[in-house]
């Protein structure tokens, strides 16, 4: 598979003509976007003693379209940043995943592992993202809210990114740093301006969600429904019901681009149709809906590469890091942010420019080592379930075999120990054996 190496782009008109307005505009590293990827990157960079400037277009607290669910992988990433995840601090814990499909219902507890806690969490993104941004600030990162990055500032001779142009309430500004991080989410305007587009050969999902007041708000399992039908075709994706613990449930569904229905589906109508089949007492009706139905794309399995290009490094959704098996993106945004921060800290500690460059250029390889094989297996999986007959066979077959479903949970949620038991070794072995293309 060929790596997409984009052409060098020009600096935005006028962007390079402005000098930084003061010393506060300079930093070692600029992080564009203060979602989970950006805030985690900034946190670990600041902890390493670097001067970090985060630029965020919105102001916290702000909404982010999401299912608000965290698997134990996400919990581990929060704990690593010293965030208290106790129930007294407003977190809703879950014990596992309840899967409903092919006329059956299975409760699968999260696996008992040494690498991950045995519980997941639910928290609205309005809270979660603000908490992560504040944590980065506590570690020493500077955050400017209400700053929309409009494009890169390029060194005209080398084509390397040396800063960003931004629009804010008082006009346009330019910010410069030695290294720039694109953590600006799925659309990643900054990556696109550098010529880095989404890859057509990598999976993409689309998901919609809303909230309903419901007696199911205090469910202690995340619930996932495999039966999403388009006429007589079983669609590759799932619906979810996550109790928020505040009187409401986050309800949504996501589909993969490997099905023929992708791009021709009315997601709002599909959601309503799916919910119409639910028991009335759950309350998933128009009168109980507390938010608009909103949707967004899920960029999966490294669907934007290269992750390092001419001074720009990509983290989280900007680099297409959502898990193709289950649509989980928060944990991968945070983990890639940590990997990236450690790479940058080492790079900027090198004396010579060429050495710094060599370390930064190692970031894509570090990501491939972390997820490459697993995402390759995920790409095969999403292709397979894009065929309705296979999806139907797999659902029917697996749902009547709880042991197989426990294995599937480990595979789909990427939850294993390095040595681990036989199922861990099988999942890890698959990822290791899978091709790991750029
Ligand atoms: C419907 C839906 C449900 C989902 N459910 C789950 C779930 O339950 N669990 C899970 O783990 N994942 C879920 N995901 C995926 C998850 O939301 C993402 O993977 C995650 O938010 C990625 O984090 P990020 O920091 O990379 O990007 P984002 O969270 O998108 O953060 C990007 C940040 O950059 C800022 N920004 C963007 N452009 C600019 C700019 N030009 N200048 C300055 N700032 C900018 C944005 O305002 C934002 O704050 C879901 C996604 C969708 C669409």
Give an account of the 3D structure.
- The protein is an alpha+beta fold and 438 residues long.
- It has 11 helices and 20 strands.
- A hairpin with a 2-residue loop joins strand 14 and strand 15.
- The structure holds flavin-adenine dinucleotide.
- The site of flavin-adenine dinucleotide has 40 residues, from helix 1, strand 2, strand 9, strand 12 and strand 18.
Q: List bound small molecules.
A: flavin-adenine dinucleotide
Total DSSP helices? 11
Number of strands: 20
The residue fraction in helices comes out at 25-40%
* Approximate shape: globular
Cα-based radius of gyration, to the nearest Å: 22 Å
User: Largest sheet at a glance?
Assistant: 8 strands, mixed
Low-confidence spans: 1-25
Topology:
Blueprint lengths: L25 E7 L3 H12 L4 E5 L12 E2 L1 H9 L11 E3 L1 E6 L2 E6 L10 E3 L2 H15 L2 E4 L2 E7 L6 E8 L2 E12 L6 H5 L10 E10 L8 E4 L3 E2 L2 E2 L2 E7 L4 E9 L10 H10 L17 E6 L8 E2 L2 E3 L15 H19 L4 H8 L2 H23 L2 H12 L2 H12 L8 H12 L5
Parallel strand pairs: 1-2, 1-11, 2-8, 5-13, 11-20
Antiparallel strand pairs: 3-7, 4-7, 5-6, 9-10, 10-11, 12-17, 12-18, 13-16, 14-15, 16-17, 19-20
Helix pairs in contact: 1-3, 1-6, 2-6, 6-7, 8-11
Keywords:
alpha+beta; 7-stranded mixed beta sheet; 11 helices; binds flavin-adenine dinucleotide
Q: What is this entry, summarized?
A:
The chain has helices at 36-47, 72-80, 125-139, 189-193, 267-276, 330-348, 353-360, 363-385, 388-399, 402-413, 422-433, and strands at 26-32, 52-56, 69-70, 92-94, 96-101, 104-109, 120-122, 142-145, 148-154, 161-168, 171-182, 204-213, 222-225, 229-230, 233-234, 237-243, 248-256, 294-299, 308-309, 312-314. With 438 residues, the protein is of the alpha+beta class.
